[in-house]
Amino acid sequence: MKSARLAAAFLLFTIIPLVTGCWDRTEVNDLALIMGAGMDAAPNGKVELSVQVYTPNQTSMSSDSEMTSSGNEGDMVIVKSAVGTDLADAAQRLQEEMPRKVFWGHSEVFIVGEELAKRGIMDQVDFLFRHPQPREHAYFFISKGRAKSILSINTRMERDSAETLRELTVLAGGMGVTLKDLGGMLAGRSKAIIVPLIGKKEESGQSNAYPYINGAAVLMKGKMAGQYQGEVKRYVQIIRNELESTTVTFPVQESKDDEGGIMSVRLIKCHTKLIPLIRRNQWSVMIRIEGEASVLQNETHVNVMLPQEMPRLEQQLNKEIESKMKETFRQIQDETGADVFGTADAFWHKYPARWTKEQVRWDEIFPEISVYAHSGVHIISPGFSGKTFK
Amino acid sequence: MQTNEDVIFSARLQENISHLKERYADCFDVVFHDFSCGQTPAVIVYFMGLTDSDMINRYILEPTLKQLSEDGGITLGDFCKCLPVSSYTMIQTMDQAVMEIGDGNVVLLMDGEERAISLYLAKWEQRSITEPEAESVVRGPREGFIETLMVNVSMIRRKLKSPDLKMKSIRIGRFSQTEVVVAFVSGIIESSLVTEIESRLSRINIDGILESGMIEELIEDNPYSPFPQLQSTERPDVVAANLLEGRAAILVEGTPIALIAPATIFTFLQSPEDHYQRYYIGTAIRWLRYFFAFIALIGPSFYVAIVTYHQEMIPTTLLLNMTKSREQIPFPALVEALLMEITFEALREAGVRLPKQIGSAVSIVGALVIGQAAIAAGLVSSPMVMVVAITGIASFLIPHFAFGITVRLLRFPMMLLAGFLGFFGLMMGITLILTHLFALRSFGVPYVTLSTVSNLSQLKDILVRVPTWKMNTRPRIGVWNRYRQGANQRPGPGRGGRRR
Predict the structure, then answer these.
(1) Contacts with A33 from chain B: Cβ below 8 Å
(2) What average pLDDT does the structure give for chain B?
(3) Could you give the ipTM of this predicted complex?
(4) CATH 3.30.300.210 location in chain A
(5) Assigned CATH for A244-381
(6) A-B contacts at Cβ under 8 angstroms
């Protein structure tokens, strides 16, 4: 009797999971793995969603989708796109065209086209945060031109263009902004966003194009307000304390009768801090940078092996850094009025009561802030070579 | 046999003999040899093959015929004194006589005596001592137990010469009358443990004991548990080490496998060699074993769960390759895993049962079945072959076969749980197993001792293997005779000469 009941219980427990008939498993070969996604503006206020889908076999090619094959034979990514009233709608349309289940979990980059960025990204980004699958560690970019054209690039060096972009951000100076960072910036006090701007470079025709990080795009309240390339972008990153090491080139004035020359140093272990100050209704901020440097290239007559030369060199290096930092800060203040440096947070930290009172006026205050800079970088190494060739 | 009333010997030889002959009816191998001891008629009874007939001739019949032929009536007591046989016992009843004869001793009955003597002349063919095959070590003693109980007992006695090593003998089995010895070191062991073991053994009422595994099943704490609750070993050094830690050993006549009680989960994950190699190596290998025991349990189920439910957890590049290799596979990952694991178990079983000469053929076929050919045939994907192979290796890292096979068996329900419910099912399975393990006891000692540890010194032979000179206290099993060695055993130059 007892054993019969035991057997019945056992049968019940084993059969119940089986008789339901629902088994919501998804095999990996039933997934359409999205490697990267791009969002572009479409006519009539609609959005075009383009996705780079990994297809393991060559046979399934549809004629209308652009197709790029990466280095390995057999592997390829295809780019598919759909237009919808919003991103979720476009994603649904995309799914309807796809024989496999769309899987966002491995999408490593999200690109927003320039046009859509100017229209505003806030509404579309909401989808990426609300959907359970996209990773918060995926990188976010704004592209010059259409995002779809970046996704369609056939890269030679990496698996696909999405992977290329991810690798680019990992490298120093690449300025990676993940969805998580983006969320932080969107919800932050300054309402300003800075994300890497990517472009497409063509070496010789379409077959040899590749994506690269062109600069930084600055967004104010979700709308693209400006873009910065080269040195400005680098100094923005220095002020944001994002770069631990970078190269700084500065002119060296030697003695009065000499014309001087140029020297390049590599900054290492540099650390930047914003020190806010409010005095008689005058808001100001001091950018303080500390760090070490080693000489990379010496085009002057200065013998960098001599310790007594160092204070003079350091003074000129710091002067260069200070002026560049101030210049950059002012340029961004004037052109976009977007506080991409985290100044708002610094003021909130130091003057919480004042900040709470004045925060609604921050857009007016920020362009009026006066900026000071102090650089305390020490040259600690003459580099590998001790000789001065001049 | 038990139903017969025990009969005390009568003074008339003829009556005793006829009684014995009645009990040994239809036993062709029993020998009743009549002779006369002086004027007194006497009979020796023994089994052919169990007794050394050469010794009977030389030490019983020869001296009897030579020296005692002239004398008149002789008593059994006098007779014993002039026999050149080292050990004998006086017996009073028929049942005792039957038991002694069954053991291969020679029972001598004499007319006019209400007792008999049993002379220890048992000798039969036995296997020579060989290296234990199931528990081989690189460093350590090479001898293993054999099927003869007395030889096994002597091997332990040779390692522990103190009179504190006690051996208690019990006979179990209505027909087999198997001799079972409980060995322990008094002064270290908690006496209630011995009492408990003896009472559990005495409860056994079974036709025969053919192997210690039968005893194990009849005395364990939780008969429904898949986990072994007594450690089995064929190594005398393992038995001796466990006796010195306050455990008891159960040796059974007719099998080279001894039982050790109580056991914890960690005894099954330790090899005797952990203590013979240097302690760094011992510790490292022990950790490797813990890690792979875990893999052996959840390896395939983890893979199945991740591939069917949690694709976001796979590194992207790996996922792309897995997608590619799974493209042509007709089965769900769960079916694929079950197929491969069952095949692997079948191959393993075939390898164990087959004669050694055919074994190599099985391994060649096995390499094809679980390997490139299976992938080429489109039955399984290559990552699955990898997972099955790693799991197979992992389960062989568990040094005790009984525990390893339990883990291998539990792998299958785990796979089903993972295949139907993903990580949720996997965690359910792990929780169930852990709950069971923590509730399990072996002779009152918790199976997972970690749960009861209040001081770290209990972990010194579990998490790590501390050096021998640091292992000052014994593991705690019940009442605790704490110190296993003198303090300050650390070696080094200058030590020993000076006293500190």
Answers:
(1) 319-320, 323
(2) 85
(3) 0.78
(4) 244-381
(5) 3.30.300.210
(6) 58
